[in-house]
Amino acid sequence: MKRCLLILGLLLGFLNPVFANDLEKFQMISEIGTLANNKNYIQALDKCLDALKKYPDEPELYYWSGVIKSRTGNNEDAVLDYDKAIKLKPDNSSIYVMRGVAKSDLGDNSGAIADFDEAIKINPKDTSAYIMRACVKIQMGDIQGAGDDFEASNKILDKKE
């Protein structure tokens, strides 16, 4: 059975180059994410930059490049990568959340709030956007607004249970 699956996989790869390309891209992105999540940032960024040479229009690669740069304290460049990812995939709330975090780390709280607002507009059930917006509101002294955001997040989480 394993042999049949291997042969089928090879045939699909040879007969459908788009599928093979997508599989290769998926594997690259998965490997980059694993490296980054295991704090192998230099290796992850190197792989990400290599992958971007091959797939310059892949928003997820810009997303991961931004994540890695944020985690290593290079938030200015991370914001630029998130900008590119958003340009390619403007309907992904997670990218806005991560860009908002990077902006907040740079002291741009109003820019961060705008990004969290956009993430919520795209996906009203994105609890991370509410929680991160609440954290920034606390930094800005808006305790009532932060409480409202935490409450909104809790309501969403309660409905999932």
Keywords, separated by commas or semicolons:
161 residues, mainly alpha, Serine Threonine Protein Phosphatase 5, Tetratricopeptide repeat
Structure description:
The protein has 161 residues and is mainly α. The chain has 2 domains: 20-90, Serine Threonine Protein Phosphatase 5, Tetratricopeptide repeat; 92-161, Serine Threonine Protein Phosphatase 5, Tetratricopeptide repeat, CATH 1.25.40.10. The protein is built from 9 helices and no strands.
Question: What is the topology?
Answer:
Elements: H1 2-15, H2 17-37, H3 41-54, H4 59-71, H5 75-88, H6 93-105, H7 109-122, H8 127-139, H9 143-160
Q: What is the fold named in CATH at topology level of the largest domain?
A: Serine Threonine Protein Phosphatase 5, Tetratricopeptide repeat
Look at the structure and name the CATH superfamily of the largest domain: Tetratricopeptide repeat domain
H-E string: HHHHHHHHH
CATH class of the largest domain: Mainly Alpha
Largest sheet: none
Distance between the termini: 40 Å
- Helix segment count? 9
What integer value in Å does the Rg equal? 19 Å
Global mean pLDDT: 88
- Class from helix and strand fractions: mainly alpha
